[in-house]
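S.,

Sequence below, as promised.
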Amino acid sequence: MITELRDSYGHVFEEKLLEEISKIGVYKEIPEGFKLLEIGDYIKSMPLLMSGAIKILREDHDGDELLLYYLERGETCSMTMTCCLGHKQSEIRAVAETDTKLIMVPVGKMEDWTSKYESWRNFVLESYHNRINELLTTLDGIAFFQLDERLVQYLKKKAEINNDNIIKYTHQEIAYDLHTSRVVISRLLKKLEQLGKIELHRNYLKLIKL
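The prediction came back faster than expected:
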């Protein structure tokens, strides 16, 4: 585990901190589609991603979801940290976008490391900064961009996350992530296909030129 930790976080944390994480952290391999965190859960540990990706979702009163952002290698979730430190219930849902490897760090160590390691303090602050920027980007997309523009950005990001121009998602699943209806998504995807930007197939689509 220490080798993978160094590969993913060696440029961020000093060796002593890496050794502490390897001793107390719990290594997990999470399959694609697995739900790591549900809304209302109390959080006792926070994830450090070593490979793969996790999508963070918000839910409205009707049970519809909105994709907030992705977590990737070398990152953690600032919303998880906030809940950890405040001993509050989670307001987000976390689902593995791809097969993911991570280390779960106990909540109790977070405050200790904040005072003990400058690199940890910087990591936490940078994580908050990055997540706020991503949330602002999501908000801007909803407020200022048309749904067809949001869909294109969503497809590009999904292809980047999976390192594949084949997106194995149904129209309904895309609609859930973008907080809209399947009918609307199907119409917009068909338009993109007519423009030669994607190819539509049963239960997946292929990016051609977005």
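The first strand starts at residue 26 and ends at 30.

Coffee later?
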